[in-house]
Amino acid sequence: MQFPPESADLLAAIARLLDEQVLTAVPAHLQHPVRVAAHLSHLVERELRLAPQQAARERALLTELLGGEVDDPAAMLADRLRAADDPEFEARAWPVLVQIARQDIAVAKPGHDSWEGE
User: What's this model's pTM, rounded to 2 decimal places?
Assistant: First the structure.
């Protein structure tokens, strides 16, 4: 029995083909669209590979921050932050939001998620 390749593997192969073979073979006016297509293929590949673990990690972080399971933790967090009535909660929320943002950046722009600047 032959198992089909996973979607992420197919997207990685498409991105490599576009980057390594197609880009240099097309006229200059088509190179930018080919770069964009390759970038999007890489982006969706990373999303497919990382999303399940990232979603679970985000839910765990928000559950801990909010003190328990809720139906829509992102909405509850937004409501609590909008209320701006608990500085201690806001201080605890900041590192959680940073971790969640780093996860998103790891998909969108790998390598930039480790930045420690201001």
Answer: 0.79
